[in-house]
Amino acid sequence: MSPHPIRMDVRPEVKAFFDPATNTISYVVKDPGSAACAVIDTVMDIDYAAGRITYGHADAMIAYIREHGLELEWIIETHVHADHLSAAPYIQGELGGRIGIGDRIMVVQDTFGKIFNEGTEFQRDGSQFDALFADGDTYRVGGMQAFAIYTPGHTPACMVHVMGDAAFVGDTLFMPDGGSARADFPGGDAGQLYDSIQKVLALPDAMRLFMCHDYGPNGRDIAWETTVAAEREHNIHVGGGKTREDFIRFRTERDRQLAVPKLIIPSLQVNMRAGEIPRDKDGRPMLKVPVNGL
Ligand SMILES: [Fe+2]
């Protein structure tokens, strides 16, 4: 028996917004029984070379929510992303809603608070977020029950969020031909990632899985939706009964060859603050670069 309140008969409408600059997919998820909705993993646009922030991607989501007369209740982050910046506060300012993330955000804040040499004004208690989820916590989007599952490995604070027959897997899994996300960031762990992926694969076969990223491997078109059954059978890193040892060996070897994500430095500073841009002592929005510090 699953410990989770799974409702495969509840089928939320899921609208995807693909960001070609970072290969991120953001979602608007609508309760089938009301106008309530949630957004998952939003993106703030940055031209890092110019230090310029814009909101084209977030504005498209806001326009969609307004045009459809939806009420935004939740702004969910599956984890502290290292490859794009969250637009959570901007969207909250326009539409309301509560910003939520896994409660192990405190571990991430502690790690990167040190790396970025943040002062004591940077709280490492998750208080920048409106809600912190523990493993198995439930919450509601209108009449639809949702829940969160701890899925550490890519980062310590990763969670998968399930709403009806749809699961938002963050960076635990990619599409079957994309495999899995890296596990070499500070606090990452390939063995933990394998165990977390098993939790996702234990969900019902027909559950819809929505990815946070897709890179269109081997020239195929960008895709973001699959099922538990398809991942279990075909995922190139964990499907078809690959062992934990196989996965750890492969993942560790592959991660050694991966370049650092282009936006990791601004992403971590912003995302560990729930999407707020840090400020200097005079209150101006300002980012740091720790030299040889990552
Ligand atoms: Fe990530």
From TrEMBL:
InterPro entries listed in its UniProt record: Metallo-B-lactamas, Mito_Persulfide_Diox, POD-like_MBL-fold, RibonucZ/Hydroxyglut_hydro
Pfam families given in the database record: Lactamase_B
Single GO biological process annotation from the record: hydrogen sulfide metabolic process
UniProtKB keywords: Hydrolase, Metal-binding
SUPFAM superfamilies for the chain: Metallo-hydrolase/oxidoreductase
Molecular function GO labels: hydrolase activity; metal ion binding; sulfur dioxygenase activity
Sequence ranges assigned to domain Metallo-beta-lactamase in this UniProt record: 23-213
SMART domains found in the cross-reference section: Lactamase_B
PANTHER family attached to this UniProt entry: PERSULFIDE DIOXYGENASE ETHE1 (PTHR43084), PERSULFIDE DIOXYGENASE ETHE1, MITOCHONDRIAL (PTHR43084:SF1)
Listed name of the protein: Glyoxylase-like metal-dependent hydrolase (Beta-lactamase superfamily II)
Organism: Hoeflea marina
